[in-house]
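Milestone M4 deliverable, item 7.
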Amino acid sequence: MSRNEIYIALALVSLLLVSVVWKHELAYRRSLLSDQKPVEIEIPQYQQKIFVPETTAKGYLGKRKPDGYGWTKKYGHNLILQTNG
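Output delivered:
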């Protein structure tokens, strides 16, 4: 075997050794984390229901989601409804 082949063989063996040691270290850390119990946090009553703002009111400052009434009042006469039959 030449000198370069020996160096490559030593590098591969050391890489294999490092990966095995690393795998066992990660398994040990996972076992430590699994022993811990999760912390239970009491959620206040007012935070349990998701707040959905009324977006169709005139006083709403965010991005308005219109109800469509104003659009149909302005452009409704251009609609052509098709009926099957």
